[in-house]
Specification:
The structure holds 2 protein chains of 2 kinds. By secondary structure, chain A is mostly helical. Chain A is 77% helix and 0% strand. Chain A contains 13 helices and no strands. In chain A, α2 crosses α11 and α3 runs antiparallel to α4. Chain A is globular and about 60 Å long. The N terminus of chain A is likely disordered. Chain B is mostly helical. Helix content of chain B is 77%, strand content 1%. Chain B contains 15 helices and 2 strands. Chain B has a two-stranded antiparallel sheet. The C terminus of chain B is likely disordered. Classes of the chains: A mainly alpha, B mainly alpha. At the A-B interface, α5, α11 and α13 of A face α6, α12 and α14 of B.
Chain lengths: 324, 331
């Protein structure tokens, strides 16, 4: 009971910070609330949030996925190649791409479980394997003649609002994740494995199978984010995914997912994603040299984790005091 | 009495020898050299050996920067970002202010130490996971690097500074001496000094170290400062080798920084350092990289093969430690 309350409070704080930033940008950054800017901002945020979902699911099981970007890039290139070179319809190419993402994720999971090596090391190495394979196959060429149906999907506006269908894709993924964590056994098992692996194993959870499924879902989400990025850029370029690492951890952690595992916050990740995307966008509009964007994102991440730390220390002190 | 002590000592040195599992790495490096010298004529040329050893020199320092933080059971994801920031700081001192090389190097090292101190202080004071802290500071350092340089390299460096990157004695690069001296100092530091032993104790068992009265927070800061210095040193060597202070220096270091210490036998859980293993791991990675170029392998496959190789060696060393030390598998 208390934990749910605490999580809600922390999300409210995050929401407040996001609103303060948005209001500041709306006043000081010209064009922040323009139709065009809102459209690109929301679309960018949607992709960032799906990337963060991929990391969040791994973190919730006490794992990491450093190959998120490599999988996203490989899936984007695979889907792009199927559509451009093999003339496949997007309805066929996208499921194949997603299956590839899930397969790569499963491979990570199987390697982690079978070898017993830290997922950090495994996914760091497989990232290099996946990227190398993708570059060798594509020879680092991009696929920019993608079918019209695929491209318009990211450009149309839902019911005339400045909202790309990609935002709806993100929301659909969020609902599915929320259902996974609140309504399914697998979701509870992932959290149990993340919170205390030994206790989970002793209460009959198949830890190995859960970890493989976790990494598979993480790979699937990375693949989805890769395809969304290709649609957003209107181009499947090998560079996709190379700069995902910071954002994936930052958004998940700012949203309230603990890096130590056992906790998750889908709603927090969504707000965190809007905060990060809003800051990136607002700083650019304020005409601050865009080279400093990284600096701001780093500071925001530090600030968010420090505030979270201060709050949790204060909470422990309060509850200790109450007990006395 | 004296007999049992000798026996104990010899047993200890034997177990220490097996702990230093670098014999396998040495064998691997030797086999690679033999195969390549047969396959390719130019492999054993002075210049090629120089090229290989020069990349060993930087890779070993990058790996050492990560190893120092791994030794306290933490990670430093900002090794590359510190390397880049230090490289352009030293470059900027020479290019924008026209100051001599030695002043630039001093400034660069101070910058590296400051970056490390920032990491260490945040981790030690707040208790936030070092992984998250260094991801955040990596972004901050990269932002500073790009903001200061506006993504333009500094070209007007001290001629001595850039000449050093190309200088060699026969086949041996001069920068190799810097790496060897640094690793020597690190070995003495970790094996012979109180602070070094205390750092390893913190990594081995945090609560035991705390109970024993070791100032844990200060040792954590020490480890991060040393890591920053090493990363900065690697960044400046890299710049002197390129002949320009590129803002993108360090952006490709993440995999190498972990691969070198892990292949060298450093445990991710902390409490150990491997100086010779580190050097041999850097040598093997440089040899593989160089061999693939000589064999005319598509450069895109190099990354793939490097990833597979790291997976393989990590697994092999994992199996070796598990079978060799039954206590370990219980953890």
């Amino acid at each position: 009971m208390r934990t749910t309350l605490r999580l809600n409070q922390s999300r409210l704080g995050l929401l407040a910070v996001t609103l303060v930033f948005s209001a500041t940008f709306a006043i000081f950054a010209q064009g922040f609330l323009s139709d065009f800017n809102l459209f690109t901002l929301l679309r960018f945020a949607a992709v960032q949030i799906v990337i963060a979902f991929g990391q969040m699911i791994a973190l919730s099981a006490g794992e990491m996925n450093l190959s998120l970007g490599a999988i996203g890039g490989a899936v984007a290139m695979c889907t792009g190649g199927l559509m451009e070179v093999f003339q496949l319809s997007p309805f066929l190419a996208i499921p194949i791409g997603l299956a590839l993402g899930a397969a790569m994720g499963s491979m990570n999971g199987i390697l982690v479980v079978r070898t017993g090596i830290n997922s950090f090391v495994i996914t760091l190495a497989t990232a290099s394997v996946f990227t190398g394979l993708m570059l060798a196959i594509t020879q680092a060429d991009s696929y920019d003649a993608l079918p019209e149906a695929f491209l318009t999907f990211s450009r149309i506006r839902v019911l005339g609002f400045p909202v790309s269908p990609l935002v709806l894709v993100m929301l659909a993924a969020a609902v599915l994740l929320w259902l996974l964590y609140t309504k399914t056994t697998l979701g509870r098992e992932i959290l149990a494995v993340g919170a205390n692996r030994r206790a989970a194993a002793m209460s009959g959870v198949n830890v190995g199978a859960t970890l493989i499924k976790t990494q598979m879902l993480s790979g699937l989400l990375a693949g989805l984010a890769g395809i969304m990025t290709a649609a957003m850029l209107a181009d499947a370029v090998p560079r996709i995914g190379m700069d995902w690492m910071l954002g994936s951890f930052a958004i998940a952690v700012i949203g309230g997912t603990a890096i130590t595992g056992g906790s998750v916050s889908v709603g927090g990740a969504i707000i965190g994603g809007f905060l990060v995307a809003g800051i990136t966008n607002g700083v650019l509009l304020l005409n601050v040299s865009n080279f400093f964007v990284n600096l701001f994102l780093g500071l925001i991440l530090l600030l968010a984790v420090s505030l979270d730390r201060i709050r949790s220390v204060a909470m422990t002190r309060m509850s200790l005091g109450a007990r006395k | 009495m004296s007999q049992s002590t000798t026996l104990e000592r010899s047993r200890r040195s034997l177990s220490r020898l097996s702990e230093y599992s670098w014999a396998g790495l040495l064998a691997m490096a030797t086999v690679l050299v033999i195969i390549m010298s047969v396959v390719s004529d130019s492999f054993l040329s002075d210049f090629n050996i120089f090229v290989v050893l020069r990349s060993v020199a930087t890779a070993a320092l990058i790996g050492a920067a990560q190893m120092t933080v791994l030794s306290i059971g933490q990670m430093n994801l900002s090794v590359g970002a510190i390397g880049g920031l230090v490289a352009i700081t030293a470059g900027g001192i020479m290019d924008a202010y026209g100051l001599p090389g030695w002043l630039a190097i001093t400034g660069g090292l101070a910058c590296g130490a400051a970056c490390g101190a920032l990491n260490g202080l945040i981790v030690a004071r707040t208790g936030i996971n070092a992984f998250i802290v260094t991801i955040a500071t990596a972004s901050i350092f990269l932002g500073l690097t790009l903001g200061i340089t506006e993504a333009q390299p500094y070209y007007n460096l001290d001629p001595g500074y850039t000449a050093f990157g190309q200088a060699r004695l026969g086949f041996f690069p001069l920068m190799g001496f810097i790496t060897l001296a640094t690793l020597g100092i690190l070995a003495v530091f970790f094996y012979r000094t109180l602070v070094g032993r205390q750092i390893l104790a913190v990594g081995g068992n945090l609560s035991a170290a705390e109970t024993a009265g070791i100032p844990v927070g200060r040792r954590v800061v020490w480890a991060h400062v040393i890591s920053g210095l090493l990363a900065g040193g690697a960044g400046m060597l890299w710049a002197s080798q390129l002949g320009a202070a590129q803002p993108m220096i360090g952006q490709s270091w993440l995999l190498i920084s972990f691969a070198v210490p892990i292949i060298g036998g450093v445990a991710l859980t902390g409490g150990s350092v491997r100086i010779i293993g580190l050097l041999l791991a850097a040598l093997i990675i440089a040899l593989i990289d160089n061999s693939l170029v000589h064999l005319g392998v598509d450069p895109f496959y190099v990354e793939l093969l490097l990833g597979l190789f790291i997976l393989g060696t990590v697994y092999a060393s994992h199996v070796a430690t598990r079978s060799g030390n039954p206590k370990r598998s219980l953890r």
